[in-house]
Structures are given as structure tokens and as C-alpha cells.
Amino acid sequence: MVWSKTDARLVNVVFAPRSSWIALNCVTPIDHHCLRFHRLTMSTQTESEVFSPPSSSREIPENSLFDDPDADIILRSCDHREFRVLKLYITKASPVLQETIQSALSSPTASTAPSLPSVQLSDSGTTLSSLLSFILPMPSVLPPTIEQTMLLLSAAQKYQMEFIMSTIRAVIVSQDPPFIRQETAVQVYSLAQTHGLRQEALHAARATLTFSFTLENLEDKLGSTPLVDLHGLWKYHHRLRTYLADDLAALMKTGVPSEMSGQPCDYGTMTWLGEYIESIVNSPALFNTTQFYRFLLHHTKVASWARYRCECANIPSRAINVFWKALKTVVDDCTTRVSIDVYEIYGTGND
Question: How crowded is residue 226: how many other Cβ atoms within 10 Å of its Cβ?
């Protein structure tokens, strides 16, 4: 995969708007004994029930749980599911839905219709089920797939539910295994781009730094990930490598402890250290202690084989710790700076 040198003219191409619709299967019923939740009104709930902590369970509440006998509004999903709820919870959570509901209640048909007023929403039943579980006094539940979880975040963002978004993200972060990890990073990044979720896009981009961004490592992603998103990630990696090249060169000049640089070694202590620094610039995924000691071990073996005098194996651990701390500071600073640039220069949503 070869891309031309990136400049500002590519921004409009890379982040062109795309459709955000994803086909979803209908939610499947769950066992009542698993959820152990009964319909309760505010008048009968205890404080512990109202403020029960969010759950990372993969079970979506079935529709009967959203059939409140005291409901005064019906929310309809795009796949024809109905949610009978108290509008007070909805209007307090979202200024967008508050305006939508007020508009529905003030329409001429609302005053003459015998049934509850209803509001048609563009979200699927799966998304609404999960979203309402974070709004209403009931156990909060995430959707079962990555795609549906990203749609949930997108819906919360669309309806300007800042507190609900923070709560959803807190549940996502608590997952084991992590929601954003090496195996899911590219997929999450692509979906985050589609739905304009900047925070998730940046976290996913950072997660891709844990593996080499090469054609071989991306081979299984080529058929399922839009090239525009792979190009966006490539720009992220390219910009980080640019920052690392300059800052690590400065570190090599002034930040290497004398106990390291001054070790007696005919082969050259700074030679293997420079090779390791160069490897990080080419592939940030090599920034870890395992790779660091691998370069050191290789250096000492080669020196021994060539019968060079080499005392690098005797570098004091204190000196290595000082250097590693300085190296980590540089890498972290570069990663933060490139993330800020992604926000301010390229953007991470479909702007």
C-alpha cells in the first residue's frame, strides 16, 4: 500500500462525509432470571435501586421493561419498536429530545388522539433499548457488538446527552478485555470516524501504535476497512514518526546518562542505542522494554563474537531507569502533540 506525501489538500478527501447507517439485527429476548429487574415506578423504588451502578452486561432489556404503566409518551424506533416511558426522564437527559417531544405534544393530532402521544426516532430498537437503560432507573446495559456500541455513543452525542455519554464511556472503559485494544483498534477507529466520535477515534488511533503499521499487518483489514480510514491512520503514524525523529535525536545528544554513553566498548555503546532509537522512529510499536533489552543483548552477543571489548552488559540499572524515563517522556509528549494536531488540523470526525 503506497500513499503520496500528505498535505493540507488531502483533508477534504480523507474526511469526506459518509453514510453512518449500519444494518442491525433485531434484539433477542433475554432471560428474566438473568436481569432480575421488575418494572418499578419512582414511588416504589428505593435509593439503591434508583442509583444502581451501570452494568457491562451484554444483555439488552427486552421491550416489556419499557412499558411503564404510568408512561405519558411513546418513543418509536425506526424498526417499529415502541417504548412507553415517562417523558420527564427523557427531557431531563436531552435538550434535543425535549424540543422534539414538546413539538409532538403541541401538534393538533396530539390533543385529539386517544392514545399516548408518540415520537418517531431514527434509531434502531437495539440502540434505544440500551440508551434508555442509561437514562431510566434500571440496570444500564451495553449492546452486544462493537458496531452497536458505537451507534449507542453516536445517538447519545446526537441528542446532546453529555452526562449519559460520560456514563457510557465509563462502563466501556471498565470492560475486560478492553473495548479498544490491538484487535479492535482499526475497526473502532473506522466506526468512530463514521459517527464523528472524536474521543474514540483518538483512543483507537493510539491503540494502533502497539503494532507495526505495515501492509502485512493490515492485510486482514483491507477488505473490511475503508481506505480513507486506513489513510487517516497512516497520517497519524506518519506525523508521530516525524515528531519522534526530531525529539529523539535531541535526546540522544543531551539525555543519555554518562554511565551509559561512557561504558568501555570497542563496538560503541551509542551505536546499539542509536539503532534502537531509530527503530522506534520507524515503528513506534517497538517502544517497550522487551525490545530495548533485545537490542542490548544482540549488541553484546555481536561484540563477544567479534572479540570486541564490551562492558555494556554492566550498565548500572539506575542509569537505564533514568534513560528509560526520559525516553518515555519524549514518546508520551509526541503522542499527545500529534493527538492535538489531529483535533486542530485534520479533525477526526466527518467535518
Answer: 12
Decide if 171 contacts 54 (C-beta within 8 A).
yes
Q: Three-class SS of residue 120?
A: strand
Strand, coil or helix: 102: helix
**Across the chain, what does the average pLDDT equal?**
79
Pull the grid cell for residue 17.
462525509
Instruction: Tell me the per-residue pLDDT of 63-110, one tens digit each, with 9 for 90 and over.
Output: 556 888 899 999 999 999 999 999 999 999 999 999 999 988 887 665
Q: Can you spell out the DSSP letters for 207-266?
A: HGGGS---TTTTGGGTTTS-HHHHHHHHHHHHHHHHHHHHHHHHHHHH-S-HHHHTS-BS
Rounded Cα distance between 262 and 168, Å, is 52
pTM of the predicted protein model: 0.70
Query: Cell 413539538 appears where?
Result: 103
Residue with cell 500528505: 6
Q: Measure the CA–CA gap between 292 and 314, rounded to whole angstroms.
A: 15
| Domains of the chain, first to last | 40-140 (3.30.710), 228-346 (no CATH)
- The helix/strand/coil state of 84 is strand
Please give the Cα distance from 218 to 246 (Å, whole number): 27
Q: Please report the sign of the dihedral spanned by the C-alpha atoms of residue 90, residue 64, residue 166, residue 122.
A: negative
